[in-house]
Amino acid sequence: MHNVAITGTGVFTPSQVITNDELVAAFNDYADLWNAENAAAIAAGEVEAKPHSSSDFIVAASGIERRYVLDKAGVLDPTRMFPKLEKRPDDAPGYMAEIGVDAAQKALAEAGVDAADVDLVICAASNMERAYPAIAVEIQQLLGAGGFAFDMNVACSSATFGIQTAADMIRAGSIRRALVINPEICSAHLEWRDRDCHFIFGDVATATLLERDEDLKGPHFKVLSTRCATQFSNNIRNNNGYLRRTQDAMEDSRDMQFMQNGRKVFKEVLPLVSAHIADHMAEENIAPQDLRRLWLHQANKTMNDYIGKKVLGRAPSPDEQPNILQDYANTSSAGSIIAFSKHSSDLAAGDKGLICSFGAGYSVGSVIVERA
Prior knowledge:
Layout: E1 4-12, E2 16-19, H1 20-37, H2 39-43, H3 55-62, E3 66-69, H4 72-76, H5 95-111, E4 120-124, H6 135-143, E5 148-152, H7 158-172, E6 177-185, E7 203-212, E8 221-230, E9 236-237, E10 259-260, H8 262-283, E11 291-296, H9 301-312, H10 325-328, H11 335-342, E12 352-359, E13 363-371
Parallel strand pairs: 4-5, 4-6, 11-12
Antiparallel strand pairs: 1-7, 1-8, 2-3, 6-7, 8-13, 9-10, 12-13
């Protein structure tokens, strides 16, 4: 059995930013248009008028202040309210592959590793641009990586599940190096016309390079332990899939975008994740005071504050539990990796930390690492 290390990470950040104020202005214009078009039905009590959103509401509900997207104009068009990405020919790189390659190249550069020396590429994300061929195989070809590649989907936990999968293969000796890539174009599956969730997601791509922990000379993080768990729930769901045509359901439908029962998610996911982390730490004989940092899934500040307090037994400081969702919003599986990539280089040798992602499934994955 071989030991495993994280030797590099990379983050692709889109150039376009939407602030809360911009988003609210577009949403309120859309709501006004809808209310005007449905004035008679609203007056008759057949439908309810769409209420306005506000920046204060968004910050209070989530802690999010802005988000990056691949297309700003389409999202902020009150007659459209979703991104517009041009269709690419089959012989051109796909959008997910393009941004995934960018993040992967940054991770490889940080580690000083050539793409040809990578044995496995996993594309782990909440949605895939197409059914097949696998996005991971396209990324493998664009990078010039060796070995093999495949896609996987565990919604917001895809990154940590991908890390465990790659780490297990490295431990077993079947591969030496793996890239786990999380290209998340969340703007494409968000319902921007729903006041309760129109502010939640942003776009990004992350990459994590894992290697055998042998003869490594540069700074890296030893992967001490990984742990994953799932529990079925309908409280976070997206019904869009390849069977839509067979069900004569090709029209625009609310359940074909991101949906969640927020109150139930809070009530059920928080104890699930807190217990998962506590059990993982207990298995590895790691006490709360042994953890230097928590890199949590970036879905909601209140959720992270709750989990951090449960894990540490007290309110964590911003240094102990850095958040990035105020700038990136929820980026599904990529969130905890953004936090890790941007807030890990200052740790000293021997410092331990925990990466955790959680979400639809329900699913939760955790990775305990130590700076070397």
